[in-house]
Amino acid sequence: MRTGRPLLAAATLAALTTGAAFLFGPGGAETPASGSTTKKPAAPATAATECVADARHPKRQLRGVWIATVKNIDWPSRTGLAVARQKAEYVKILDAAVKRRLNAVFVQVRPASDALYKSSLEPWSEYLTGTPGKDPGWDPLPFLVAEAHKRGLEFHAWFNPYRAAHDTDLSRLPASHPARRNPGWIVRYGDRLYYNPGLPQVREHVTKVVTDVAQRYDVDGVHFDDYFYPYPEPGRTFDDRAAFAKYGKGKSLAAWRRSNVNTLIAQVDKAVHAAKGHVKFGVSPFGIWRNKAQDPSGSATSGMSAYDAIHADARAWIKAGTVDYVMPQLYWPRGFRAADYRALAPWWAGEVEGGDVHLYIGQALYRVGATDDPAWTKAGELSAHLTLNRKHEQVDGDVYFSAKNLVANPLGAMDRVVKEHYSRPALLPLMKERGGSAPPAPAGVRSDGAKLTWNATPGARSYAVYRLPKSGADCHTTDARDLVAVVSSPSFGAVSPGTYLVTALDRLHHESKPATVKVG
């Protein structure tokens, strides 16, 4: 996704060919939603007559934000902070996510073969202390996960698969760094070190690192960004000739490279699900798979092709089912000639249609307010993307880059998104392949007139609270028009007179039958 490179003018094609539409991350470093107005009869509604799904209030929708740690983009804000300050900054981000009715965070735990958690495989990240390999005195990841879960946010651990270091000098890396211990794995390209995707040992190492986190920590997902083979730089060659000669087996160089990436994706998918079946695995690829000029089945665009430039074939992963979701980074506005959002969102919807792979859209919150493209100077551009998404049922949600922009809320754009699209909470989209089952209905639901409480339900991660309209029409299984909260503890305050439903949710948001209680 975005890198530490300066953003170029979005109005130029160069912004599509130099990585300017992304920062380091996910690689490290683009009708008011009020309550239903349907007039309801006094009798309880039936699904056939009353409970027609309201597109403004989807029952299930992923709403997430990327939290980038590379170069201290989002968290922590700088190196060397006291632990208490690091914790406070993170909680502030989570509270901003909850305020916007988001339900997932994608936290960068491995920017470049380093770790923001205690690891025996890779050294501590410099973005905690300022010194590569220096122990920060605590393991942040249990806290990061627990605080997200406490607020009803799904936690996805975000990894960069192939970047080894933001430096070409091996001697500056800790002695325990895999690149120093295995210099034959390394390709120098530009001002960075990369692991060679063509080496089986590299794929084994990356898979082991990811699986280690899935096994030892209570994460809900594993996430890869858009950085596979490095984005092309003029006059530079990624020198993997020796590996190609050894492992190419008659393929063209480009086909071999794509095969290497496809192999890693399949290997990680299998390993993660073997470690814990409920953990989701997905990738946020560059927004253009291929252009029509390169492939008639490609998108009506004219920008850089991920398939050809960085050898990332998202279509192959979708067809093979080696990802649970794809999250293409559609960081361009409507009307942008080289990569129009109006062309790309429908194209990706078509790619997942009829299959089990979920589609979420990576949204460029970080571009809002940019003056190099008139579209991004308008507060409503981002919200308009979500309005367009409604026309394509395959779009299961959106994720915003990045957290500091979520907090800053440029041009009030997220306020508008919330008003027009997120006026109700939403449950997570269900992934049947990841297992899970609905818990029992909550028991002992009661009210003291100001607060609802109930007994903790075995197998429940959280609970959904609905308030029915005066008519008594119960549409809670159809959409979220009556959903008032998703809470992680067995209580809900600030109730007013009316009829409430409470359901229990497992970690994947399979929903129980409701328990009913009347207040007042």
SSE map:
Layout: H1 14-17, E1 62-67, H2 83-99, E2 104-110, H3 126-129, H4 140-150, E3 154-159, E4 163-165, H5 178-181, E5 186-189, E6 192-195, H6 200-216, E7 221-224, H7 241-247, H8 253-275, E8 280-283, H9 306-309, H10 314-320, E9 325-326, H11 341-352, E10 358-363, H12 381-389, E11 395-400, H13 403-408, H14 413-421, E12 446-447, E13 451-453, E14 462-467, E15 483-487, E16 491-493, E17 498-505, E18 515-519
Q: Number of DSSP helices?
A: 14
Mean pLDDT value: 92
Structural classification: alpha/beta
- What fraction strand? 15-25%
Count the beta strands. Answer: 18
**First and last CA, distance:** 52 Å
Task: Summarize the amount of helix as a percent range.
Answer: 25-40%
- Low-pLDDT residue intervals, each spanning 5 or more residues: 1-49
Nearest-angstrom radius of gyration? 23 Å
The major sheet is characterized as: 8 strands, parallel, barrel
Q: What topology, given as strand order, has the largest sheet?
A: 1-2-3-7-8-9-10-11
Q: What is the 3D form?
A: globular
Signal peptide: 1-23
Organism: Nonomuraea indica
Protein name: Glycoside hydrolase family 10 protein
GO molecular function, one term: hydrolase activity
Characterization of this structure:
By secondary structure, this protein is α/β, with parallel strands linked by helices. The protein is 26% helix and 16% strand. The chain contains 14 helices and 18 strands. It has an eight-stranded parallel barrel, surrounded by six helices. α2 packs parallel to α4 and α6 packs parallel to α8. The longest helix has 23 residues. The N and C termini lie far apart (52 Å). 50% of the residues are buried. The N terminus is likely disordered. Keywords: Hydrolase, Signal. InterPro entries: Divisome_Glycosyl_Hydrolase, GH, GHL10. This is Glycoside hydrolase family 10 protein. GO terms for molecular function: hydrolase activity. Pfam families: GHL10.
